[in-house]
Task: structure prediction
Amino acid sequence: MRELISTLLSHRTTHADEELAYDRMLEAFGDWEGVLHAPLDDLIHAIRTTRWPATQAPRIQEILQRIKTETGGSFSLDFLADWPTERSMEWLTDMPGIGLKTASLVLLFNFRKPVLPIDAHVHRVMQRLGVIGPKVSVEKAHQVLLDMLKPELDPEGLFNFHKHNYWHGQQICFFQRPNCPRCPLKGFCNYYLEHFGEATPEALAATPQHWDAAAWGKLPH
Result:
């Protein structure tokens, strides 16, 4: 449940504000049953650090009601573990505010289903490297990249692919002023070639050989 609701809260919201909203919500109402039956204005106030609390609050309650109905009274998504991937994806994306990214995150992170979440960070890295074209949208990239990777990677490999490209986009390959000199992918990056020319031996040698935890933070496992 946390993955689903947290991702919904995170839309256009910083990780810190999303976590604050999630924690305040459960502190205020105790559990998912409490959140489901909370007065709407109180729920909106509890998640006020998100970008669109007035939109997200009723969506959260509708999602909780659907899950409770599907499970016969519990607030658990464990039943998805036994469902085929396509059926699980359709069921999740039929709920309000749940798109391909959120559904894919839930299915991959919690159940290791063979899906690939694509967010803005992963999408940007893949476009700059030239793996996908400039006109491939985030939505289309889910299937385009999955078709490329699925023959080679099992769900654990897809998980690691998402995780490391997400952190690369967040810590090095910024939307504005990417830190190309520090990038370990500069040797085969179209963006680097276009802006700096072919990576020289000196430029490649200057690339950090290990994750710089002091500069970029601890890499999650």
Notes: The chain has two domains: 2-111, 120-216. The mean pLDDT is 92. Residues 120-216 form a domain with the Endonuclease Iii, domain 2 fold (CATH 1.10.1670.10).
